TrEMBL record:
Transmembrane regions: 6-23, 35-59, 79-101, 178-200, 220-243, 275-294, 300-317, 329-351, 363-384, 396-422, 451-470
A molecular function GO annotation: transmembrane transporter activity
Signal peptide (residue range): none
NCBIfam families the UniProt entry points to: dass
Upper classification of the organism: Bacteria, Pseudomonadati, Bacteroidota, Sphingobacteriia, Sphingobacteriales
Localization: Membrane
Domain of life: Bacteria
Record's protein name: Anion permease
One term under GO cellular component: membrane
Keywords, alphabetical: Membrane, Transmembrane, Transmembrane helix
Membrane association type: Multi-pass membrane protein
Pfam families hit by this protein: Na_sulph_symp
Length: 476
């Protein structure tokens, strides 16, 4: 019962019931409206933490089946439709990528990569920041949980280095020495690497799926190409920007490479399993980037990678069974994708998109585009994860943009990126946020202040640099 917040659960129930009994608007099917009530209530429950995401997802699936909103009068088809999300290949791509990510952590390869970059670049605070961030960037394509990437690899190393450089969490007067700078740099870099690859965080494939439902097809390669230039510019600017507006007191960190070298020495030479992990990683990248040439989709590529790791003994079946994050994601992701897909197929998303889009018909798409992005971006203050925002708002905002003529692929990728980039805003805005904020190096006021500055920087880069790049590659 500790997982249940009864006050939030009652509020969630009231929200669902109120929407359910509101008269159905003209042009909307009754079962579409009732599905909306269940969907909104599920999202409210997730945001308000009425219960865990998995619990809310199961409740949502159960209500869809029990009320037969997906197949009125046919209970057998209703339960099959309610469970249809589990047959979605995108969902299994994320689950499989979680399993593969376990190989980086289990073999120690992720930690070795991070310390190697610190050894090379770590003579200054800026060098340390770029070293940690580059390790995150390299791991991002194959570790779909940015929380696991940040919490399992980057954060422990960052904190260890900060402590060794004199930033002690228990001593507030030492936080600005280097700990606060590295905390914000590592966290915001994680937001950037999360949007540069389709498989870098769970919300990206969800956006891809909802975009496909609206007729916009995005592949692993097309996402990476579109995000490459604005992503790299943000990646390069973040440490420099923080160094100017939130500088560390230390200007040299000559001890850091020695600390990293010591840790690498203790780890010993690279093992056979680490080499196998490296080989699998490159095979996966080839399959994800060039899979269309071999008629292999991204999920099949991930299955091939997992089989290689299992057959080589890098992972065991016990590792797969015990990867709770993957199974948890598969359950709640299936629920939200199922409801979002049926809201679209039952006509609600299209109806709402045209309704709102009709209010913007006096605007050209060039003016409507930034309005849609800005409103969507700063709504993130209300959300504790990118996934919740994508589930609640992505399809509607994309439908509105398409209705007023915004180029679909450009808008779909930008909206997908904003859900993660705006994690910079708050100390709860994305999965890794509580981990880094929990270090106590950055107080709440500075976190929100610098987070807002960072959000402005991100949007400026994506609008200006990204806009120019998308023109070159033909997205608009």
């Amino acid at each position: 019962m500790k997982e249940i917040n009864f006050t939030s659960l009652i509020i969630t129930l009231v929200v669902g019931v109120v929407i359910w009994f509101i008269p159905v608007p003209d042009g909307v099917k009754p079962n579409a409206w009732h599905l909306l009530a269940i969907f909104v209530a599920t999202i409210v429950g997730i945001i308000s933490k009425a219960a865990t995401m998995g619990t809310m997802a199961i409740i949502g699936i159960t209500l869809c089946a029990a009320t037969q909103v997906l197949a009125p009068g046919d209970p057998t088809k209703s339960i099959l439709n309610a469970l249809s999300g589990f047959g979605n290949s995108t969902i299994w791509l994320i689950g499989l990528a979680f399993f593969i990510a376990r190989g980086f952590i289990k073999t120690g390869l992720g930690t070795r990569i991070a310390y190697s970059f610190i050894k090379i670049f770590g003579k200054s605070p800026l060098g340390l920041a770029y070293g940690l961030n580059t390790a995150d960037l390299i791991l991002a394509p194959a570790i779909p949980s940015n929380t696991a990437r940040a919490g399992g690899v980057i954060f422990p190393i960052m904190k260890s280095i900060a402590v060794n450089m004199g930033s002690i969490p228990e001593k507030a007067e030492t936080h600005r020495k280097i700990g606060a700078f590295l905390t914000l740099s590592s966290y915001n870099a994680n937001m950037i690497t999360s949007v540069m690859f389709l498989t870098a965080t769970a919300s990206n494939p969800m956006a891809q799926k909802f975009a496909k439902d609206l007729g916009v097809t995005i592949t692993w390669g097309s996402w990476a190409i579109a995000a490459l230039v604005p992503g790299l510019v943000c990646f390069l600017l973040v440490p420099i920007f923080l160094y100017k507006v939130f500088p560390p007191e230390l200007k040299e960190t000559k001890e850091a490479p020695a600390i990293a070298a010591k840790q690498l020495k203790e780890m010993g030479p690279i093992t056979i399993k680490e080499w196998l992990m490296v080989a699998t990683f490159f095979i996966l990248l080839v399959l994800w980037i060039f899979g269309n040439l071999f008629s292999i989709d991204a999920t099949t590529g991930a299955l091939i990678g997992l089989c290689i790791l299992l057959l080589c003994g890098v992972l065991t079946w016990e590792d797969v069974k015990s990867e709770k994050g993957a199974w948890d994601t598969i359950v709640w992701f299936s629920s939200l994708v199922m409801m979002g897909s049926f809201l679209n197929s039952l006509g609600f998303i299209g109806w709402f998109g045209h309704l709102v889009g009709g209010q913007m018909t006096h605007l050209s798409w060039q003016l409507a585009f930034p309005v849609i992005i800005l409103v969507y971006s700063y709504c993130h203050y209300m959300f504790a994860s990118a996934t919740a925002q994508v589930a609640a708002m992505y399809s509607v905002f994309l439908a509105v943009g398409i209705a007023v003529g915004v180029p679909g692929t450009m808008l779909a990728i930008f909206l997908g990126a904003c859900a993660s980039l705006m994690g910079s805003l708050t100390h709860y805005g994305h999965g890794p946020a509580p981990i880094f904020f929990g270090s106590t190096y950055v107080d709440l006021k500075d976190w929100w202040k610098q987070g807002f500055f960072m959000s402005v920087l991100f949007l400026l880069v994506w609008f200006l640099v990204g806009g120019a790049w998308w023109k070159i590659i033909g997205l608009w």
